[in-house]
Amino acid sequence: MLYFAYGSNLNHFQMKRRCKDSIFLKKINLKDFKLTFRSKYRAADIEYKKGSFVPGGLFEISKSDEKKLDVYEDFPILYKKYYFKYYGKKVMTYTMTKKDFFKYPTEKYFNLIKRGYKDCNLDDNYLKKALRG
């Protein structure tokens, strides 16, 4: 199945450790969404915003990888699954169930995502913009 990563799962080392079958395919943008950080975990989330986009990584994952991600993402409590089409193919990602206020991510978590932006060849100016809330 296809999976869209936009937070710490962009980090290839972390993603491979968590999802052994995962294969990074390419970078893509999710249209009409923006990146933010929220919850008591100060974790990455996406929310609807017309005209905006979230850069991320498209991965091929196995069913067992998806189960591991479900545990990591605390599905369905903290995150729920969101599906969209990319060139006619169904892609899964996660979005938080509760849309509370912006909270700055920890430096360690932010650096993990920043490394993932490098791994996927994404422009980290977008990541810095997300820190402005």
3D structure, described in words:
By secondary structure, the chain is an alpha+beta fold. The chain has one domain: Gamma-glutamyl cyclotransferase-like (Hypothetical upf0131 protein ytfp), CATH 3.10.490.10. It has 4 helices and 5 strands; from the N terminus they run βαββαββαα. It has a 5-stranded mixed β-sheet. It is globular. The N and C termini lie far apart (32 Å).
List keywords for this structure.
globular, 133 residues, single chain, 28% helix, five-stranded mixed beta sheet, Hypothetical upf0131 protein ytfp, alpha+beta
Helix-strand blueprint:
Layout: E1 2-5, H1 12-18, E2 23-38, E3 43-60, H2 63-72, E4 79-86, E5 89-96, H3 107-119, H4 124-130
Parallel strand pairs: 1-5
Antiparallel strand pairs: 1-3, 2-3, 4-5
Instruction: Summarize the biggest pleated sheet.
Output: 5 strands, mixed
Tally of helical runs: 4
Which fold name is given in CATH as the topology? Hypothetical upf0131 protein ytfp
Strand content: 35-45%
* Count of domain modules: 1
CATH class: Alpha Beta
Order the strands across the largest sheet as they lie in space: 2-3-1-5-4
Query: What is the share of helical residues?
Result: 25-40%
Structural class: alpha+beta
User: What Rg is obtained from the alpha carbons, in whole angstroms?
Assistant: 13 Å
Full CATH superfamily name: Gamma-glutamyl cyclotransferase-like
CATH architecture title: Roll
Unreliable runs: none
Gap from first CA to last CA: 32 Å
Tell me the number of strands.
Answer: 5
Order of helices and strands: EHEEHEEHH
